[in-house]
Amino acid sequence: MEQESQPVLQVNNLTKIYPGNIKAVNDVSFQVKKGEMVAVLGPSGAGKSTLLRCMNRLINKNTGQVLVNGKDITQCRGQALRRLRSDVGMIFQQFNLIPRLTVFENVLAGRLSHTSNPFWCTASIFRFFNETNKQKAFDALKRVGIEHLAPKRSDSLSGGQQQRVAIARTLAQEPEVILADEPVASLDPASSQRVLGILKQISESKNIPVIVNLHQVDLARQFATRIIGIQEGNLMFNGQVDDFSLDIARTIYGTQFESAVCTNELKQVAAA
Length: 272
Description:
single chain, Rossmann fold, 4-stranded antiparallel sheet, 10 strands, 35% helix, 24% strand
């Protein structure tokens, strides 16, 4: 039980400053444990994407630490960084699939950290992956419910289907933690519900912590177990979903509050 309570991800005093002394992330600290689905909320330009990208070293921080199972990813270099990065799955808003490859081939790319051959893309992708890796890729497709799309080119799919391919690719990676940067921003409401439902089910069934950037308060209330609120790079809220009041949301979102409160029910409460 003690091990279960230990944080998988720990962010300590993380700061990222851009030219012009713009503090995109300002001294942010929080922890995420197994099985949590944490929604990071905030207006556009709040620093949400910078925060996530610092957490897997797509962007280098100025100060602070990001610990994954006790190992500081901000201090890793070379092979050690690649190894630790493989423990951090990343899902992007724009899917980042290879259009000409099939769905299965895109998901199989998630197994790259589990093969020693660096030339997988110079010929048939299947040549450099053993049957175990292929089975894990197919199992990932089954988990997100699109195994029937395995032979299709990824650029023939809808946006919601492509995002599920991206989730399957991340699952095939077998990460310790999943970061999702606005994964539903370009999707219709039905696809958004489906994608976030899959992420929540993964978090609960596989006990993998998921940190997801969102703009919509109602989606965070529906799917997250905890909310982190960011405004101008500052941590404004870190607590349970039920404690994230509309007054707090109004403070964090400012002029973007109306766009963040999507459902009629929440809008009626906000107007009361």
